[in-house]
Design a protein that fits this description.
Blueprint (H helix, E strand, L loop, with lengths): L2 H7 L1 E7 L6 E6 L6 H9 L3 E6 L1 H17 L3 E6 L9 H13 L6 E7 L1 H13 L5 E6 L2 H7 L4 E6 L2 E8 L4 E5 L8 H18 L1 H15 L3 H21 L14 H10 L7 H18 L7 H11 L11 H8 L5 E2 L2 E9 L2 E7 L1 H4 L2 H5 L5 H4 L6 H7 L1
Helix pairs in contact: 2-3, 4-5, 6-7, 7-8, 7-9, 7-11, 8-9, 10-11, 10-13, 11-12
Length: 392
């Protein structure tokens, strides 16, 4: 969009993303949904927009988005998919293909994902594979999707044996963020999104992490003066990482901090009862504990992350599944290379690296007997010489 168009649409911050799969902007504003249609039309030159959403989001926001698309000269069709992470499967992808065909979609069409991370992943994967790939736009409606799932082009679905095991890299043409849409989210959903912002600070930006320590309540209350700069910085971190490593060859793996255990927890709970950001919070605290135990992070790192998560209302202790059950899920982790997982560890707040660990080294039996999920019992644990050797 031109500068004048951005101003007219209420865009407050624009973050560029540069990748081999295409360059695109993340446009961040407040009360800007009505301007999305013109921006999508300008970016994609599409003739048909297929708006993929879930019923709760569609009831609130599909009508104004589709009106803006039609006012911009596009034909607009609404396609609904079931809500929840369990709908991220190949069966739903096949249904999406049929819906796109029924809508008359062709290579001049664009898929517009209106919703959270599940909608973005599912709609994005359909766009990546329908007719060998058509254009795709993200209009995220959750905090988690705004700062993480909508940026970077990773799309995909789950298999019964693990999360995100089938997918593609398909960059959107535009990410349109209207922070006002977050006002309809319950506080629990906001907190789940904040977990990904905490992650961004933990792996990349100590100043962002410190800002969250000062203003986490204001961010959760959606005060624009606190929320918008945090949104912009979290998106800029994701954009920088993606621009430098689009296909997760090395650097982008750092964005999986906390996700090794998070995905295992979600799989074991069959994607019920725990939001993705809540699982990530648990996984981050665990990963920080292991970072300290491996002699990488200074003592107190895990305590600091746990304290911030708890202030946000996020859980921090592992669900009490058997160690063997966790190990079975870890063995199909998508970050596995040969027999080892590229486990994301911290050197300190704002400084992360990957460490190759077997599932048994991620979850040491000795630690498990002492209660691996009990953060307070594990606090201050000193690493063994054997663990230090593995970390190197």
């Amino acid at each position: 969009m031109s500068a004048s168009s951005q101003a007219a649409a209420g865009v407050l911050h624009s973050v560029p993303v540069t990748t081999r799969g295409g360059d695109y902007p993340i446009e961040i504003g407040y009360g800007t949904l009505a301007g999305a249609g013109a921006a999508i039309a300008q970016r994609t030159k599409a003739t048909l927009a297929a708006v993929v959403t879930v019923p709760p989001v569609g009831r609130r926001y599909a009508a104004p988005l589709m009106r803006s698309l039609r006012e911009a000269g596009l034909r607009a069709r609404r396609i609904e998919v079931p809500d929840g992470d369990r709908s991220k499967n190949l069966r739903q992808v096949a249904r999406l293909y049929d819906a796109l065909l029924d809508a008359g979609a062709d290579r001049s069409s664009v898929v517009v994902a209106l919703g959270g991370g599940v909608v973005g992943d599912l709609a994005g994967f359909a766009a990546a594979t329908f007719l060998r790939g058509i254009q795709f736009v993200q209009v995220p409606t959750t905090l988690l999707a705004m700062v993480d799932a909508s940026v970077g082009g990773k799309v995909g679905v789950n298999l019964p044996r693990g999360k995100n095991l089938v997918g593609a890299f398909h960059q959107p043409r535009l990410v349109w963020i209207d922070a006002r849409l977050l006002s309809s989210l319950p506080r629990r959903q906001r907190a789940a999104g904040v977990a990904e912002i905490i992650k961004a600070g933990a792996i990349w930006d100590a100043a962002l992490f410190a800002r969250l320590e000062r203003e986490i309540e204001r961010v959760l209350d959606l005060e624009p003066e606190a929320l918008l700069p945090v949104l912009e910085r979290a998106c800029a971190i994701k954009a920088e990482v993606v621009s430098r490593d689009e296909r997760e060859a090395d650097l982008r793996t750092l964005l999986n901090f906390g996700h090794t255990l998070a995905h295992a927890i979600e799989g074991l709970k069959r994607y019920r009862g725990l939001l993705h950001g809540e699982a990530v919070a648990i996984g981050m605290v665990f990963a920080a504990q292991r970072s300290e135990a491996l002699g990488l992070a200074p003592e107190g790192t895990a305590t600091r992350i746990a304290a911030l998560c708890e202030r946000a209302g996020l859980p921090t202790d592992l669900p009490a599944f058997d160690r063997k059950a966790y190990l079975e899920v870890l063995r199909v982790d998508k970050k596995r290379q040969d027999a080892r997982i590229r486990f994301v560890a911290l050197r300190g707040i704002g400084n992360a690296e990957t460490v190759p660990l077997t599932p048994a080294e991620v979850l040491p039996a000795a630690s498990w007997r002492r209660g691996v999920g009990a953060r307070r019992a594990d606090r201050g644990r000193r690493t063994s010489r054997k663990d230090r050797g593995r970390a190197r």
